[in-house]
Design goal:
single chain
Length: 80
């Protein structure tokens, strides 16, 4: 898979968790909490969704590494 594939998966799962987010308007550097308004429970649900979809374990210490679509696609590329 490419980084673009991982970005698309990340955005798909993000929008399932927060359906009010339009994936077309999410920028590469948009922070999921600061810019997109996810709370800590939403972040946990996103981590679970990514685990279910990709089989990747994301420890809490790594949450900052999935805080934006760019960071997340890089992280997923390295860890899936």
């Amino acid at each position: 898979m490419t980084a673009a594939d991982y970005r698309a998966i990340f955005l798909a799962e993000l929008c399932r968790i927060a359906p009010d987010i339009d994936p077309e308007t999410v920028g590469d550097g948009d922070h999921i909490q600061d810019d997109l308004g996810l709370d800590s429970m939403d972040v946990l649900n996103l981590v679970v969704a990514l685990h279910d979809r990709l089989g990747v374990d994301i420890p809490e210490k790594d949450y900052p590494q999935i805080a934006t679509p760019t960071l997340a696609s890089d992280y997923l590329s390295r860890n899936v």
